[in-house]
C-alpha cells in the first residue's frame, strides 16, 4: 500500500529533531550584502509571467533583500516539496495550496507565523476573513493567502450573439439548451470543460462536483471527515448531469483535455467555458476574443463554487535564521499587499486594501466575479484530501468516458474515498 504523505513527512522530520532545537541558529550579523531569500513556486502556466513580474518588482524595490525564485511544474511540485520539507532542506518561502496544507501542518513541517506577525496585526486584519481563516489550524496561523481562485464560467459574446442567446444561463437546463443552440447554429463547442487526463488530471470535473454538492446543500464527507457523504440523491443529480453533458446532450467532446479546452475557448471555438479565474489573464492576451466572465452559475441550487487559495508559508529548517525569517515575512507581506499585480492573471486578492486600489478596480472582468469569494465551497479539512482529489478526478473521468450510470460512478467513488480515509 502506498505510504501516506503525512507518515513519510512525520517519520523523517522526527529524525531531524524538534522545533525548539531547530531555532537555535542565532542571529546573522549585519552587513552590506543583502539577505538572500529562496523561494519555490508552481507558477509555470499562463499566470507564471505575472508572478515573475511581481518577483522582479520586489527585487527592484528592495536593496536589503534579494529573492531567488525557482518555479517547478505543478505535476512535479508537491513531490519535490514533500521531500524537501521532510529533510528540512526546503527554501525559505514556499507556495502551498490551502487544500494541501494539513499534512504538512500535522507533520510539523511549516513554521507557525503568529509570533513572527505579532507586530503586524494591522496587516493581518487587512485580510478577508474568508481567505485567512482557513489558513489557521488548531488556533495557529501557518500561511498567508495570496489569492482566492474559484471556479467560474467564461462565455464567448460573439458566439452567443450568433446563436441569438441574450441571457447567461442560470440553471443546468438553461446551460444545456444554450450550449446545444450554439453548436447547432455555429458549429462551435457548446460547453468547454475538460474531462480527461493529459497535462493535468480532469480536476474540472471534481471542482464541478464539489460545487454541485455545495449548491444542493450537501457535503463530500461526514462531519468528522471519516466517511464519504455524497452517495445520495444530491450526488446522483450532479454526477448524472456531468455524465450527460458529454454523452446525452453532447455539448462537450469526449476525451477533452485541459490544454485543448483552453485553446478552443481562447481561439473562439467554444461558447461556455468552465475554469478557474487564473485563466482570465491568458484570455485577455487574445486580442480578437470577445468574452465575458461570471461567477460559476447556480446550476443545481444556491450560488456557490469550489475555490482554493495559493498561500505563502515558511518551512521549518534545521536552523531557523531570525534574519531570514524577517526577510521572508517582508516578502510575504509585500506580495499580498501588491496582489493587484497578481490579479492581472485573474486571481482575486485577499487583502481589503488591495481591492480598493485604483489599479485593481481598473482591471476588466475581475469586478464581474469578485463576489464569488462570498460563496466559496471549500474542500474538506482532512490530510487525505490531496489523495481524494486525485482519485475522484480519475473516477469521474472514467464515468464520463464510459457513460456509466451515476449510481455506478458514485458507488466506486464512495468505496475509494472510504478506503483512503481508513488509512488516516
Q: Would you tell me the structural class of the helices and strands? A: alpha/beta
Low-confidence stretches: 1-30
User: How confident is the prediction overall: mean pLDDT?
Assistant: 91
Shape, per Cα inertia axes:
globular
Distance between the termini: 13 Å
How many helices? The count is 20
What amount of the residues lies in strands? 5-15%
- Indicate the radius of gyration in whole angstroms: 22 Å
The proportion of residues forming helix, as a percent range, comes to 40-55%
- State the total count of DSSP E strands: 14
The biggest beta sheet reads: 7 strands, mixed
Could you explain the architecture of this structure?
The protein is an alpha/beta fold and 424 residues long. Helix content is 44%, strand content 15%. The chain has 20 helices and 14 strands. It has helices spanning 5-16, 19-22, 48-61, 74-86, 102-106, 121-125, 129-132, 157-162, 172-186, 203-215, 233-247, 258-266, 280-284, 322-337, 339-342, 352-355, 358-361, 366-369, 385-401, 406-421, and strands at residues 35-41, 65-71, 93-97, 136-137, 140-141, 144-145, 147-156, 189-192, 270-276, 291-295, 305-308, 310-313, 348-349, 376-377. Strands 7, 8, 9, 10, 11, 13 and 14 form a seven-stranded mixed β-sheet that branches. A five-stranded mixed β-sheet has the order 2-1-3-12-6. A two-stranded antiparallel sheet has the order 4-5. α3 links the parallel β1 (35-41) and β2. α11 (233-247) crosses α20 (406-421). The radius of gyration is 22 Å and the shape is globular. It starts with a helix and ends with a helix.
Amino acid at each position: 500500500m502506498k505510504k501516506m504523505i503525512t507518515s513519510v513527512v512525520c517519520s523523517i522530520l522526527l529524525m531531524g529533531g524538534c522545533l525548539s532545537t531547530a531555532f537555535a541558529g542565532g542571529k546573522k550579523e549585519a552587513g552590506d550584502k543583502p539577505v538572500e531569500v529562496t523561494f519555490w513556486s508552481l507558477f509555470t502556466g499562463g499566470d507564471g509571467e505575472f508572478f515573475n513580474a511581481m518577483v522582479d518588482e520586489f527585487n527592484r524595490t528592495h536593496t536589503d533583500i534579494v529573492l531567488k525564485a525557482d518555479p517547478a511544474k505543478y505535476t512535479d511540485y508537491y513531490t519535490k516539496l514533500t521531500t524537501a520539507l521532510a529533510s528540512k532542506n526546503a527554501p525559505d518561502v514556499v507556495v502551498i495550496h490551502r487544500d494541501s496544507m494539513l499534512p504538512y501542518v500535522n507533520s510539523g513541517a511549516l513554521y507557525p507565523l503568529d509570533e513572527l506577525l505579532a507586530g503586524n496585526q494591522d496587516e493581518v486584519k487587512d485580510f478577508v476573513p474568508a481567505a485567512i481563516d482557513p489558513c489557521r489550524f488548531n488556533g495557529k496561523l501557518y500561511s498567508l493567502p495570496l489569492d482566492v481562485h474559484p471556479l467560474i464560467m467564461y462565455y464567448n459574446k460573439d458566439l452567443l450573439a450568433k446563436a441569438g442567446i441574450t441571457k447567461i444561463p442560470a440553471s443546468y437546463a438553461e446551460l444545456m439548451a444554450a450550449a446545444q443552440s450554439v453548436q447547432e447554429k455555429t458549429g462551435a463547442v457548446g460547453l468547454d470543460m475538460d474531462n480527461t487526463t493529459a497535462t493535468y488530471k480532469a480536476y474540472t470535473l471534481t471542482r464541478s462536483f464539489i460545487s454541485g454538492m455545495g449548491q444542493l446543500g450537501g457535503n463530500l464527507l461526514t462531519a468528522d471527515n471519516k466517511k464519504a457523504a455524497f452517495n445520495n440523491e444530491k450526488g446522483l443529480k450532479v454526477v448524472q448531469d456531468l455524465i450527460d453533458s458529454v454523452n446525452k446532450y453532447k455539448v462537450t467532446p469526449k476525451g477533452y483535455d485541459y490544454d485543448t479546452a483552453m485553446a478552443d475557448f481562447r481561439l473562439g471555438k467554444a461558447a461556455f467555458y468552465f475554469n478557474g479565474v487564473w485563466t482570465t489573464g491568458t484570455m485577455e492576451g487574445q486580442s480578437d476574443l470577445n468574452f465575458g466572465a461570471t461567477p460559476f452559475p447556480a446550476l443545481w441550487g444556491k450560488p456557490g463554487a469550489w475555490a482554493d487559495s495559493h498561500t505563502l508559508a515558511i518551512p521549518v529548517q534545521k536552523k531557523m535564521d531570525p534574519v531570514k525569517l524577517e526577510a521572508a515575512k517582508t516578502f510575504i507581506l509585500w506580495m499580498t499587499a501588491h496582489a493587484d499585480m497578481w490579479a492581472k492573471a485573474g486571481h482575486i486578492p485577499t487583502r481589503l486594501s488591495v481591492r480598493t486600489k485604483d489599479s485593481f478596480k481598473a482591471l476588466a472582468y475581475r469586478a464581474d466575479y469578485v463576489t464569488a469569494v462570498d460563496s466559496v465551497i471549500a474542500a474538506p479539512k482532512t490530510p487525505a484530501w490531496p489523495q481524494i482529489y486525485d482519485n475522484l478526478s480519475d473516477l469521474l473521468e472514467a464515468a464520463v468516458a464510459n457513460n456509466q450510470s451515476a449510481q455506478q460512478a458514485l458507488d466506486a467513488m464512495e468505496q475509494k474515498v472510504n478506503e483512503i480515509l481508513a488509512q488516516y
